[in-house]
Amino acid sequence: MNFNLNEADLDIQALAKEVGEKIIAPWADRAEAGEHPVGAFQGMDEAGFTGMVVPEEYDGPGCTYLQLSLVMEQLGKYSPAIAEHLNMSNCNLILPILTYGTEEQKRKWLPRIANGDAYCAFALTEPDAGSDNGAMSTTAVKDGDDYVLNGHKCFISGAEYANLFMIFAVTSPKGAPKKEITAFILEKDENTKGMTIGKAEKTMGMNGAPANDIWFDNLRIPAANMVGAPGQGFKAAMCGLNPGRTALSSEAIGAAQRAIDLTVEYVKARKMFGKTLADFQNTQFVLAECQTRVDAARLLIRNACVSLDEGKKEAAKLCSEAKWYATDVANDVVRKCIQLYGGYGYSKEYPLERMYRDLRIFTVFEGTNEVQKYTIAKFMGLR
Question: Which of 90, 162, 257, 267 has the highest CB neighbour number within 10 Å of its CB?
């Protein structure tokens, strides 16, 4: 498979590098101090990144998932938390709407995502339904031209500022032999009733990507906002999660690459026992191993992205392979770089400490790495 980047790819990559340095880097510090990074989101919107993969026929730029990966990697170098905002729109909402939405729905919502008017959230996870979506308890009951939703979602990234939500709920009656999960789009405004958004979770990292609980109390959504048929919600969710896995993996690898680059600079300057740290074979071997594993992970991600762009059947397997491997590698690489920094790596005055905290969640969200291995095993015919 040819992974050579063309001129358009390189232009997008260069633009993302500029946005990362000029916008994301300063906002990462502000977000860490508790400020909501809405200004960074606006900067990414202005660069055309929010709805990159919206096709041209729906007023989007029609970028590829490979190009999205290039952007996510560059922005992830400075803040995987802030870059995650792009995942919500480009992956979790656009592809499910394109795949399962009606033509009217596509023309209604996709241009809004492409022009930055829509801030997106993906309301799937519940307190008792994370990896096990079959345990979902949020319900949607038909009432005239509406569905009435009741239930509780948690760890929903971007919930407090989103105005376009994809919400998943059980539409089958209680006690039905098979649970029917269905997807809906909610257009939230100041008149929306029956939806309560809680305070942002206090988390170990990802301070630029606040996540909230959502409670639904007789929230009414028009039946016309159902995406796909009743019971197609799980397929719609997986449709959005697959490209999301390559996107977040790209963020993680971006952070890991920056950790390596910073550590190479550090060990060349840091002296011990009359030598620089870079002179020691152990240092050289550790960093050589780290770089090789990051390069391998990047190739896995690009392979998955190209498969998504080409609509290949094995794309889901490749996305799972990329997700678990890249996020595991990124966590281990940053840990090893911190070890080479010594005490300075543990200091908040240096960026590796924040990277370490941010990347820990990457092996958990968009499907835990254990779930990815389960998916890969299924494609291998092991279950």
Answer: 90
